[in-house]
Write a structure and sequence with these properties.
single chain, mainly beta, Methylamine Dehydrogenase, Chain H, Immunoglobulin-like, 2 domains, 6-stranded antiparallel sheet, 4-stranded antiparallel sheet, 2 helices, 44 strands
Length: about 475
């Protein structure tokens, strides 16, 4: 079996020499022997912790036996003390999440002694929490949460499968869950606008579908949640005052976006209408930039990109492209981590059709392949508090619009955008108007449009306009 791994390493090197885009990406050593489930960047010690199902770490000349956990120090593999994990051949029983909490490393997985959570302290493994079923760990600031299938942890009964650790003891977080038709998993928790948002795969007739929030008193839905018979949350991050959510959901099922959208506290937004997502898996905020992994087409339909950045104004891709989506669902980047000047991604055994053995990295400052402007988020929804400055009627309309209000000043700049973020109309008002008339048929086909009026010395006014056929 190890001979097979060495032959795979040689074959991988040969293929990468053939493709320029492959040469942008680097292997970690020569990869690992099984899937990677979690990555954690320890910036204090310059370590990247990895967990998964791998039994071997592969170098250019050898293989190193491990128990589904390892450290990459930027140049070489480092091993952790052997854990009580059952391994056979090149695979081990899975180890899931890894987090650093109060100067110790915490791991979740299927340990051979029947435990699902362990602590590594002073190079020794110790039981931690002792949940009675699978759990995942998440940090929200310095708060530690466990989410999963367990109903008991730390000797406490947990009715809703969500627990919080106070530094000494575990206790149930929030109230019991009622009315759910199915709960497959809770996997994510973040804090947004003072409330705790939980995502996963669950259904409730009141709209708590795959995502909900706790306000300290009760659980609440986010609109109708993520719609669709098969839908779930992959990742959640707060960026630029919005809660970004990636997962499996589509506009065809009534969602605002395909595979990624954002919640502003009141409604769901399609934040990247110029991009056609086939998948959105991992997200990460680093240096005030949102990184997203997945599969998406840009305006040029020739190419499928796999990783991009959003700085609040532009979405840029880097790392090359492929001419068509991969057939294997795990052969594109999923989880993402950044350590110093490198971006690390969890991939399949292949990436861009070549062998990468589950891990790849690339320089963070790699030049972009493609960039597109994203319409400012103020153009996505109305600023209704300024509504008295501009009124529009009739709305919806099939022909003309009449604008009235105090915002119609000399030099006012009027622009109209379609939902793809493209400007379809503009004009500058040369003098003050009590009313102003527009032919909405000039905007394009029937649909939703966003009207921007930027008046000298005033906050821009944004209005939604619906053009009927």
């Amino acid at each position: 079996m190890r001979l097979l791994c060495h032959l795979l390493v040689i074959f991988t090197s040969f293929l990468c020499d053939k493709y320029a885009y492959c040469q942008q990406w680097e292997l970690l050593g020569n990869g690992v022997s099984g899937p990677v489930h979690s990555m954690y960047a320890d910036h204090d010690n310059d370590f990247l912790y990895l967990t998964g199902r791998f039994h071997w770490l592969m170098t250019e000349t050898d293989t190193i036996t491990v128990t589904a956990m390892a450290i990459w120090d930027g140049n070489n593999w480092l091993t952790l003390p052997e854990a009580d994990i059952t391994c056979q051949g090149f695979l081990c029983n899975p180890v899931g999440t890894v987090v650093h909490y109060n100067d110790v490393m915490l791991f979740t997985g299927m340990f051979s002694d029947g435990q699902f959570m362990k602590m590594l302290a002073n190079s020794e493994w110790q039981n931690f929490g002792e949940p009675n079923d699978l759990a995942g760990l998440r940090l929200v600031g310095d708060e530690l949460f466990a989410l999963g299938l367990f109903t008991e942890i730390g000797g406490q009964y947990i009715s809703n499968r969500i627990a919080q650790y106070d530094g000494a003891n575990w206790h149930q977080f929030a109230s019991e869950l009622e009315g759910f038709t199915s709960i497959t998993s809770f996997s994510q928790i973040v804090k947004y606008q003072g409330n705790y948002y939980v995502g996963g795969n669950f259904k409730n007739p009141d709209g708590r579908n795959n995502i909900m929030y706790w306000d300290g008193i009760a659980w609440h839905p986010l609109g109708q949640g993520l719609l669709g018979g098969i839908s779930w949350v992959n990742s959640m991050h707060v960026y630029n005052d919005l809660l970004y959510v990636s997962g499996y959901f589509t506009q065809e099922n009534g969602n605002a976006g395909n595979f990624i959208m954002a919640w502003n506290g009141e409604e769901w937004l399609d934040v990247f209408p110029q991009l056609n997502f086939f998948a959105a898996a991992g997200m990460l905020v680093h240096d005030n930039v949102l990184y997203i992994t997945g599969l998406y087409l840009a305006e040029d339909p020739c190419c499928v990109y796999t990783i991009g950045t959003y700085d609040g104004a532009q979405f840029c891709t880097f790392g090359g492209y492929m001419p068509f989506p991969p057939q294997a669902p795990n052969s594109y980047p999923h989880q993402i981590a950044i350590l110093h000047d490198k971006v690390y991604v969890r991939v399949g055994i292949t990436f861009f059709g070549e062998s990468f053995n589950y891990l790849a990295r690339i320089d963070k400052d790699t030049p972009s392949d493609y960039c597109t402007d994203i319409v400012p988020l103020t153009a996505i929804s109305e600023n209704s508090s300024l509504g008295n400055m501009l009124t529009i009627h009739p709305n919806p309309t099939s022909s003309y619009l009449t604008l009235t209000g105090s915002a119609l000043l000399p030099g006012s700049e009027l622009k109209v955008y379609n939902v793809a973020g493209q400007q379809v109309y503009s004009e500058v008002l040369p003098y003050a108007h009590e009313t102003h008339t527009l032919d909405a048929r000039r905007f394009g086909p029937a649909g939703l449009y966003l009207l921007h009026l930027n008046s000298p010395g005033h906050t821009p006014v944004v209005k939604k306009v619906v053009v009927q056929g």
